[in-house]
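#help-structures

NK: newbie question. if I give both the sequence and a SMILES, will the prediction place the ligand too? trying with adenosine-5'-triphosphate
OV: yes, paste both and it writes out the complex. here, I ran yours:
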Amino acid sequence: HAWDLKGKVSDLEDKIRSYQTRVKSVNQENEALKGSVAENILYHSIIVLQNVFANLSMAFLKQGNIRVFCRVRPTVDGGLSKHIQLPATDNKMITLAKTEESHTGKTTDTQKNYNFSFDRVFGAKASQQEVFEEISLLVQSALDGYNVCCFAYGQTGSGKTYTMEGEEFNENRGVIPRAVQQIFKAGEKLGSQGWEFSFTASFVEIYNESLRDLLYTGKASKRPEHEIRKSANNEVTITNLTYEKVSNEDQVLGLIALANQNRSTAQTAQNDRSSRSHSVFQLDIEGINAGRDVKCKSTLCLVDLAGSERLVKSQSQGERFKEMTAINGSLSNLGIVITALANKENYIPYRNSKLTYLLQGCLGGNSKTLMFVNIAPETDSFGETLNSLRFASKVNDCVIGTASANRK
Ligand SMILES: Nc1ncnc2c1ncn2[C@@H]1O[C@H](COP(=O)(O)OP(=O)(O)OP(=O)(O)O)[C@@H](O)[C@H]1O
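OV: that's the protein plus ligand as structure tokens.
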């Protein structure tokens, strides 16, 4: 019996040992599992934190930086564009897709995608209100003493004027009337905190590198010449320009109507002139809070640029050639100035074009800049659209210092 018992105990001991080994290995597996779960959680937390961090630092960097919004114009018949794709889940991406047909018919058609990402992409259905909501904080900061510049870039007919001015007195009003409305409303609110603001508006057109006052009411024959001047304290002013003191929204809307009238008179004399000129609306804001002994001074600058289409040499002769050269010169200088600012170059060639000279105070370290790149959805605009998006993404890559408010 003893022998038998010894054998059974030995069997039991073997079983116990094998159980122990299994438990150990299960424990090890558990540990491994626990480790990987923990690691996974940690890994994902780090990714989330990295993203939060990247977004935060982007937001900080972007504070004084150029932001770029892309807006796609609806097609004339309200249909879908064939080559522009916006992902449903991401409002920062846009893809231009080009299908290259096989010429021989032997190979299949190939599709080439051009992807771009911006701070925001608005599709054809985006309303003026939605667009404005995204820039209203920027407009607001003009009252806090920041210089703010918002400009629309794109080929003729891509929706720049619609974005900046829109239609009168309804929900299709664009950035300029909405910004003005917001500034006056917010200025009134700040009044209860002891702030007193004064506003001065001007509206100027740059055509063929010469300036024209859009608020001029005198005789056409007596239109004065204008020069851009920079004062000792770096303020840019235009000689002989109408600077109109304004205190409410209606007054500014009246000035915008006057500017449109002035533009259409010139337009009648010269077909399509407004497409070939830059128009710059400026609202100078001065605030004083006597109780707190603080002052602030800034400019809100809203610009509808000339059409960015490239020069078609064979079709451009005489006056048209001169215009296109002036437009190409000033738009490419705008790109050069922005790149020079981003590269922190010592010399920024503001003076190489009237446009950049005039916008000098609003482009650079001490300002907030937003660029709309407007694009047309038609297939025959593919080349121009690609060009505009390439220009805009170059601008989007620029990091231009941090803005600081002009407060004393
Ligand atoms: N988002 C939009 N929704 C509805 N209509 C639009 C939109 N964008 C543009 N349009 C219409 O498309 C046409 C061309 O737009 P717009 O005049 O703004 O182009 P543009 O880029 O300013 O051209 P130009 O360089 O000639 O001034 C206009 O009739 C305008 O009302």
